[in-house]
Amino acid sequence: MNIMISVWGKNGAGKSTVASNLACAFARRGQKTALVGANRFYGSIQYYFGMEFPGERSLRSMLAGRDALNIQPYFLEYARQKNLFVASLSNTDDYIGYQRMRTDAVTRFLNLVKKSFQVTIIDCDESTEDPLSMLSLTIAEKIVYVTRPTLQAAVFAKACEGLVAGLRVAEKLRVVFVENSRRSELSSFAPFGLAGPRAVLPFCREIEGAEGEGVPILLTRGLSRASRVYRREIETIASRLTAAEGEAAEADAPKAEAAAAGAVKSGAGEGESEVCDA
């Protein structure tokens, strides 16, 4: 069965990092995986892979063109990971030239991608005005809500409660915390009232630095403890997302959360990559 997963949350929460590494996790399992960057104004997801998107292969060009039924030419395969294909706005797309994507074109695109790939991951924009992000939330089987334990994140979640209720997607949400052990004042924060199992990912300079190197942390060797925990937890999240509802993988989430939090706190003290304040 083909599955679509939307990665959503406040901009700056770590969505693109999670989406990029999740895509790598699925591709490493031999599943043909599509990663779609839904940034409305400029291409960004490709930089996590060191890729260049020419204008003729822009996601904007595809959605505006007559050949929208032929989606394969608009996906570029990542050279370092077989089975991983990326679609995004071009590196040369003009911010000023932005035009609103038509709902019918976006719906057709999402359905075609889902049929063409075993796993589709949408790296969503936070804006409710973006049809690609919002329609993906309704079409996707699972939504990974990425957040941090900060006041800004709590305010964003509160503001989106009506959206979640209106789209009726609460049951599809899976919460992933990207947590800095020095900022745990809102560690009990349960967005949208979702107090069930959740994953916790560490945040450190090494993980952040990989974004600029063009190689996601999941494909990087010689890692610090915090980065190894991040990689292991991403693999676990991928397993849970494709597991049947009610399976033991969900029940093990609290154990994974405790292990991840402990590793983040101990990593800096062992001379490894320290936890960031940013």
Helical element count? 10
What is the 3D form?
A: globular
- Average residue-wise pLDDT: 81
CATH superfamily: P-loop containing nucleotide triphosphate hydrolases
Order of SSEs: EHEHEEHEHEHHEEHHHH
Q: How large is the radius of gyration?
A: 18 Å
Q: pLDDT below 50 for ≥5 consecutive residues: which ranges?
A: 245-278
Task: Kindly summarize this structure in a few lines.
The protein is of the alpha/beta class and 278 residues long. The protein has helices at 15-28, 59-64, 103-116, 131-139, 151-159, 161-167, 205-213, 225-242, 248-251, 253-267, and strands at 3-9, 33-37, 76-77, 84-87, 119-123, 142-147, 173-179, 199-202.
Explain this structure:
By secondary structure, the protein is of the alpha/beta class. It has a single domain (about 5-270), classed as Rossmann fold. Helices cover about 40% and strands about 15% of the residues. The chain contains 10 helices and 8 strands. The protein has helices at about 15-30, 60-65, 105-115, 130-140, 150-160, 160-165, 205-215, 225-240, 250, 255-265, and strands spanning about 5-10, 35, 75, 85, 120-125, 140-145, 175-180, 200. The chain has an 8-stranded mixed sheet, sandwiched between helices. A hairpin with a 6-residue loop joins strand 3 and strand 4 (about 85). Helix 1 crosses helix 8 (about 225-240), helix 3 crosses helix 4 (about 130-140) and helix 8 runs antiparallel to helix 10 (about 255-265). Mean pLDDT is about 80; it is low at about 245-278.
